[in-house]
Design brief:
By secondary structure, the chain is mainly α. It contains 12 helices and no strands.
């Protein structure tokens, strides 16, 4: 049975899980657990909140199953649910919940304590520090693009933005990230972020990001 579950597609496993097959649910969680952990660990104040949000996201996927039209991948649906859980989490921390504009408010603005795990090298730390100063929506967009390798269509669905508009937002987010990294690099004396091929540099750190959130340690 386990072998059959591992051969099934995400959509097949999700349908089985929604029908009450806990084994199918366990396999689906196993496939996507690390990616959802990465999503939250850089966007909340501590590990306990991240762990709670991971659990809530998978459970919310089943509760909101009628909203999944299956025109896109389960992974895209999963990150869409994760985004809503993240926004719900931060709004719950503030009395004036409607006042939080995630297109303008950064994690640095929201969190009162340092966030995330310590990066394993200077380049990775530089990137994480720059991302935390960006509006949360831009941080989310860039991390999903660079670290989860999601394209325009998936990003547009996750953030509920038209594909044409998403191209412009991604371009502006890249430019903003590059500027922030160059400012931090100049301040700290680092220079690796000034590579001519910025996208290649950012993507080259994906392996380091995966290593830094490896939960088998």
């Amino acid at each position: 049975m386990l072998h059959l579950a591992r051969m099934a597609s995400d959509i097949e496993l999700f349908d089985l899980w929604c029908s009450g097959d806990q084994g199918a649910g366990n396999e689906l969680v196993r496939r996507h657990f690390d990616a959802v952990c990465r999503f939250f660990e850089t966007k909340v104040a501590d590990r306990a909140h991240a762990d709670d949000l991971v659990q809530r996201t998978f459970l919310a996927c089943v509760r909101a199953r009628d909203q999944f039209a299956k025109r896109s991948s389960f992974r895209t649906y999963l990150f869409t649910v994760a985004r809503h859980e993240l926004y719900r989490h931060w709004r719950s921390q503030y009395r004036d919940r409607a006042a939080i504009d995630f297109a303008a408010t950064s994690l640095q603005d929201l969190a009162t304590t340092p966030t995330g795990r310590i990066a394993r090298n200077q380049e990775h730390e530089l990137l994480l520090r720059a991302l935390r100063t960006m509006p949360l929506e831009q941080q989310m967009l860039l991390e999903l693009h660079y670290w989860e390798d999601l394209g325009i269509a998936a990003l547009a669905e996750i953030l509920d933005i038209a594909s044409g508009a998403m191209r412009g937002r991604l371009f502006r987010a890249r430019q903003s990230l590059r500027q922030r990294i160059e400012e931090l690099a100049g301040r700290d004396g680092a220079n690796d972020a000034k590579d001519d091929d910025f996208d290649a540099w950012a993507r080259s750190l994906r392996r380091k990001r995966l290593d830094s959130t490896d939960r088998t340690e």
